[in-house]
Amino acid sequence: xxxxxxxxxxxxLILVGLFFMVVSFYVGTLFSSSHTVLVGSGxxxxxxxxxxxxxxxxxxxxxxxxxxxxxPESGVNICPLKFNEYIPxxxxxxxxxxxxxxxxxxxxxxxxxxxxxxxxxxxxxPPPVDYKIPIKWPLSRDYVWxxxxxxxxxxxxxxxxxxxxxxxKLWWFxxxxxxxxxxxxxxxxxxxxxxxxxxGDLRSTGVVQVLDIGCGVASFxxxxxxxxxxxxxxxxKDGHENQIQFALERGIGAMISxxxxxxxxxxxxxxxxxxxxxxxxxxxxxxxxxxKEVDRLLRPHGYFVYSAPPVYRKDxxxxxxxxxxxxxxxxxxxxxxxxxxxxxxxxxxDKDSCLLDxxxxxxxxxxxxxxxTIPQWQSPLRNCITLSEQFDFQKLPPRSDxxxxxxxxxxxxxxxxxxxxxxxxxxxxxxxxxxxxxxINTVDIRNVMDMNACYGGFSVALSNLPIWVMNIVPATMSxxxxxxxxxGLIGAFHDWCNPFSTYPRTYDLLxxxxxxxxxxxxxxxxSIEDILLExxxxxxxxxxxxxxxxxxxxxxxxxxxxxxxxxxxxxxxxNEEKKMEPVLICRKKFWTIV
Length: 594
Ligand SMILES: *[C@@H]1O[C@H](CO)[C@@H](O)[C@H](O)[C@H]1NC(C)=O
Ligand SMILES: *[C@@H]1O[C@H](CO)[C@@H](O)[C@H](O)[C@H]1NC(C)=O
Ligand SMILES: *[C@@H]1O[C@H](CO)[C@@H](O)[C@H](O)[C@H]1NC(C)=O
Ligand SMILES: *[C@@H]1O[C@H](CO)[C@@H](O)[C@H](O)[C@H]1NC(C)=O
Description:
Layout: H1 8-30, E1 38-41, H2 51-54, E2 55-56, H3 92-98, E3 143-145, H4 153-158, E4 165-167, E5 170-172, H5 184-196, E6 209-213, H6 219-224, E7 230-235, H7 243-249, E8 254-256, E9 271-277, H8 289-297, E10 298-307, H9 309-312, H10 318-331, E11 334-340, E12 343-348, H11 352-360, H12 399-402, H13 408-412, H14 417-438, E13 447-450, H15 457-461, E14 468-474, H16 481-486, E15 491-494, E16 507-513, H17 528-538, E17 539-548, H18 551-560, E18 566-574, E19 580-588, E20 590-593
Subcellular location: Endomembrane system; Membrane
Family: Belongs to the methyltransferase superfamily.
Pfam families: Methyltransf_29
C-alpha cells in the first residue's frame, strides 16, 4: 500500500536524495579533516566531485551581528550545524532573558520577540544532516522527508489522533487531527451540514477564506483545497514541536503566530470563517478579549467554528467555561446556529442595533474607529467591538469572480479602477517573463512569498497553478492587504527590518519588487544585508529569489549575492511606467556542512 503511493517522479526524487548522500559521503571523506568545508550539490551533481567545483571558502563560525556589517572576503559565514532551525524572533535562549518581563498567563512568550541587532546571528543557516530537496506537491501533502524535519515529538504524542506517523525515511500524514481522527474530509463535510441544515457544503454557505487558529500540521487547510477554499493557518512555536515546519514542508500555507496580547497581522474583516479545533486558546478568559479579535477578523455574517471539550463535556470546569462563552458571544450579538458532536458554530450577525443595546447595558464596549488605510501592526488587542456602520459594506462576488474584485479600500488609497486593471495586466505579463527567464518547470514551485505584494497582482497571475502565495504588505506602507483579501487571497503584514515568523527553508520562491529601496529611505532604514540574510534563511536550497529595484541597488546586490552562495543572473524588463529596469534572478545553491 505504501509503495503504491509513489509515482515515477518520486522514485527519481529518492534517487537524487540517495545520490546526494553518496556524494556528500565521498566528499566528506576527502575533506574530513576540516569542519569548515562546504560542498555544493543539487540537480546537476558532477559525476566526479572535485575540490575545485564543490568547495566554497565560507567559514563555519558563530557570528553575531556587529554594529556595521562587513562581509568577509571568504563569503558570509555559516552558522554551526546546531542552528539549522534558527528563527531569530522565536529564539529560546533570547526568550529566557526576556521571560521575567512577559505576561505568561496570556502566553506573551509565544509572540514574536525580535532581538536587538547585536543579539542576532549574522551567518547563513545551514540545512540539517541528510537534508533532501523536498518532495513535490501534491505527494508532499501526504509524505515528507523525515530528515528534513527531524522531530519525533509530534508523532509520539499525536500518532493516536492520526496527525503524523513515521514510515522509514518519511513522515506520513494520514490527514487526521485531534477532532478529526477519521480524516478532515468527513469533518469538513459535517461543518458543511451544520452550516446549511444538511443541504450543502461550506462553499455553498459562501465560505471563501478561512483562518485556522492552532492549525497543527495544517491538514484542515489541505482538505479544504478541493472546495477551493483558501486558508491562512497559524500555530505558535511551542511544545508540540515544529507543527508549522511540518505544514510548510508539506506545501501548505502557514506561519508561526499566536493569539495572545497583540492583534494578529491580518486586516479586519478578512475571513468568512475562523476555525479553532482544540486550538488551546482560553476564549472565555480576560473578558473574552480574544473573541473580540475574532470578531474584528470575521467578515459580516462570518462563522466561528469551535471544536473543543467545553462544547460536549459536562464535567470539571467545562460547564462554567461554556456558560461564560454563551454569555460573551450573546453580548457580542453572535448567534449559536449549530451544536453537534464536539463542535459549536456561531454566526456573527452584524447587527449594530443589538451591539448598541448591549453597550447601553454595559455588556460590552464599542470601539473608537481606527484609520483603516494604515496597517494594524503589533497593536495591542482591543476589548471592544467595532460597529459595522464604520465600514463601507462591499458585497463580494463568489470565489470564481473574486480575483478581479476592485476593493473599496483602493478607492480610499487613491488607486483608480483603471490603475488597478493595468496593474493586474502588468503582473500577468511579468510572470510569463519570469518563467522564461528562470526556465523552470512550474511544478518545482509550491510555496511562494511576495515580499511586497501591493494589490496582489503577482499572486493573481499565479492563481492557475498549483502554487500558494503568502502576500506580505510591509507594515510601513498603506493597507493594500485588505484589497488582497477581498480578491480571495491570503497574506500578512510584516516589517522587513525584522525576521519573519517562519522556519528556515520554507519557500521555493521569494519575490522582492521595489522592497529593498523602501527600507533604504524614510523613518525605517535597515540594512540590505540583514534582509538578504533573512531571505537566505527562509528560501529552500535551489529556491529562487527575484529582486527588482533601482539600478544602483540591484548592482550592489549582484555584487554581494555570490557571498551568500547564490547564483545570480541580471536581466532587464519593462516596469509599470514602461521603462527598462534591472531584474536580478538569484538561486540559492544546495550546500551543506561536511
Ligand atoms: C535527529 O535527532 C536525533 C535526536 O534529536 C539525533 O540523534 C539524530 O542524529 C538526528 N538525525 C539527523 C539525521 O539529524
Ligand atoms: C451530511 O449530510 C448528508 C445529507 O443529509 C449525509 O448523507 C452525510 O452523512 C452528512 N455528513 C456528515 C459527516 O455528517
Ligand atoms: C436550520 O433550520 C432551523 C429550523 O428551520 C432553523 O431554526 C436554523 O436556524 C437553521 N440553521 C441554519 C444553519 O440554517
Ligand atoms: C452568565 O450570565 C448570567 C445572566 O447575566 C449570570 O447569572 C451568570 O452568572 C453568567 N455566567 C457566567 C459563567 O459568567
